[in-house]
Write a structure and sequence with these properties.
Elements (H helix, E strand, L loop, with lengths): L9 E4 L3 H12 L4 E4 L3 H10 L1 E2 L3 E5 L4 E3 L3 H7 L2 E4 L6 H8 L9 E3 L12 H9 L5 E5 L4 H5 L4 E6 L3 H11 L4 E6 L2 H23 L3 H23 L9 H12 L4 H10 L4 H8 L4 H15 L5 H11 L4 H9 L17
Parallel strand pairs: 1-2, 1-6, 2-5, 6-7, 7-8, 9-10
Antiparallel strand pairs: 3-4, 8-9
Helix pairs in contact: 4-5, 8-9, 8-10, 8-11, 8-13, 8-14, 9-10, 11-12, 13-14, 14-15
Bound molecules: nicotinamide-adenine-dinucleotide (NAD) and SN-glycerol-3-phosphate.
The site of SN-glycerol-3-phosphate has 13 residues, from helix 8, helix 10 and helix 11.
Pathway: Membrane lipid metabolism; glycerophospholipid metabolism
InterPro entries: 6-PGluconate_DH-like_C_sf, 6PGD_dom2, G3P_DH_NAD-dep, G3P_DH_NAD-dep_C, G3P_DH_NAD-dep_N, NAD(P)-bd_dom_sf
Organism: Methylophaga thiooxydans
Length: 346
Amino acid sequence: MTTQAKLSPTLVIGAGAWGTALAMAIARTGQEVWLWGRDQAQLAEMKQSRENGRYLPGVRFPDSLAIVDDFELAAKACQHVLISVPSTAFVATLKALQPVLKASTPVSWATKGLTPETGQFLFDAAKQILGPQQPLAVLSGPSFAAEVADNLPTAVTLASPDQGLLEDLAELMHSPTLRVYTTHDVLGAQIGGTVKNVLAISAGISDGLGYGANARAALITRGMAEIRRLAAALGAETETLFGLSGIGDLILTCTDDQSRNRQLGLALGKGLSVADAVKTVGKTVEGMHAAREVLLRAEQVGVEMPIVEQVCKILFEGYDPRESVQTLLCREQKAELLHPAGNQVN
Ligand SMILES: NC(=O)c1ccc[n+]([C@@H]2O[C@H](COP(=O)([O-])OP(=O)(O)OC[C@H]3O[C@@H](n4cnc5c(N)ncnc54)[C@H](O)[C@@H]3O)[C@@H](O)[C@H]2O)c1
Ligand SMILES: O=P(O)(O)OC[C@H](O)CO
């Protein structure tokens, strides 16, 4: 058993795949972790079996992971809250926390996306709901839950403007199998984690259509150019997007079939309707929630995102995936990198 870090116990909110995997990863370092989920029957089952049979069957909980069912009591008594619910439930979770949480308790989250109705970055929503004093951090980067649960090597990005919090959280989470890299660029980390999900849908579509490795590499690279342009226009540090939370997560999600966003694209490329593809995947697909909001943001700052635009057309306007990919391929010829006045990159 190691010495308890400053932020123990951690309360993990959201007993899905990622919340459970993170709870296990932190608990494996000997830290005390409480895992809470909204489904009381699932909590009772996990208490009894010491595993999350619904999302990560067969992986036993470490001894220092406890299942808790009293949300308010746990939120009042913990030293750190780590939220891992889908973006659609993020605001509701913050609103439930706000009245019970001490203003000094750090709140981090592993949710990737924007708020559904308002298209806000989650950091902005959290500041608004919890107040300016609450210490906040974002966890992002290339990380499939099943691999983290299996204790396979993983590296993630932790972002916060608060250097002290970054150090405390890194001390809490870092282990020989979970490497935690830190950054102050919260916006950059959020942009990468949000947009890569939309682009993974496009890579899945292309592969589902049987377009091959060349097309996939082109989509990843041109998708990266879209992320970079948006990041620059919104004021993030574009350097961040060439790290784990940007290109790292983009590569992971576009190329591996564990990705639910890619799975959705594959189903669409193989000819399923959007409704059937969503049903086939049957799990959280954040890119579907984020696509329209990302495009709206891009339009507001005058940034072109042709791949994101075609994904939106397929998801929400009934466009045929094959025609959409053709539209991308038929765009006018241009230079790959433009340096007309300084550093403008196309
Ligand atoms: N699964 C991964 O590999 C992975 C990795 C990195 C990041 N993420 C991100 O983590 C977030 C959660 O993803 P996941 O894979 O754990 O999803 P999941 O579908 O496996 O689980 C989501 C969990 O959230 C719960 N939930 C839904 N609405 C809720 C609410 N209102 N209040 C409380 N709980 C609620 C569900 O009951 C479920 O237990 C997403 O934003 C995802 O992009 C996932
Ligand atoms: O399964 P996905 O597509 O939601 O991806 C999971 C993680 O975000 C990968 O880093």
